[in-house]
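[job 4471] stage=fold_predict status=RUNNING
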Amino acid sequence: MSAAEPMADPGVSGLLSDPEFQKLKEWIISTTGLSYYADKDRDLATAVGRCQELGGRPAREVLEVLNRRGGPALDRLVEELTIGETFFFRHLEMFHALRDHVLPDLIQRRAALRSIRIWSAGCSVGAEPYSLSILLHDLLGDAARNWSFKIVATDINRRFLALARAGVYDTWALRGMDPALLQRTFHRVGARWRINDLYREAVTFRHHNLVQDKFPSIEHELSGLDLIICRNVIIYFDTATNRRLADQFYRSLVPGGWLAVGHAEPHTEIFRASRPSMRPGRCCTSGPQMGKGAGFFLRMRCPAQPALPPNYLLLRMRRCRQCQRRRKFRIGFPLLPSPDQPLQSPSCNRSQCWKDCRRFRKYPRRRTLVTW
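[job 4471] inference complete, writing structure tokens
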């Protein structure tokens, strides 16, 4: 080794030479989906060494700690493996495409219900979902007070989510914003900036692992979506995982919903070719009409009939909480809850006995989809 070369970390070198390291790497990749590290053993070993609970241990012990202690140790490792560099209105061309094409289409189609549901997958520290909230309010102006926005922002990194919920940023994260817009949407907190409550109240942050956690999910409000944005995330996953995610994203959208991925993603052809037999189908929209660098947009084509309203109910067999009789009753809760109507638990006071309802007598033993 020459004098100019940096001294290798003995802990990292020892982990790389450990015969159990490959087993540890496979477990980390299968759990987090970060196939980006499949050929970057040194980067992965360095990230493991930076974790206080994992550094200096052999691969077998590292794997035991991750399995035994569960969440905290794995969360700390994920913090080292993921990148949180982002800023407001990053890749401005994509937000221009949203402003000029996608959001006007959604506003027109959802005018009767006055509700829009968006999922920001891989939201990092929250710059993207907050940018969407600002954009929606600017598009609607004074009419925004009569609309219900629901932006569900998810990430695998719990530390990033905590920073996103705080909504406080330094000037570097705001470098993509016009000064006038910054003054209107943020207020100073010392040397930093905090986003105004008007734009915070529409955004909900959740921990979600795209590889491990199931979706579409009614429980986590990841179904019946009008727009899904997943940028700079699928670059970390392998081809098989991206094919599965593409199918799950499509099933999470309502007819006429939009899916947007980054302009530099290496697997956009997977999303273009996914589910070729889907009915009523989809149309791909990207390219010059949305501007170079806008990203890759796919839209689920609207069916001949309008989409189901959010007041549809999924009925399940339960006992009645009102009469306390041991009979078969059905409890209804919204299948596609609107933003101003949160998902009701089957054990809440809205539970109702449907025993005498003529409409349900023909379906006594199975789940039935009906209107309220």
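[job 4471] summary: The mean pLDDT is 76.
[job 4471] exit 0
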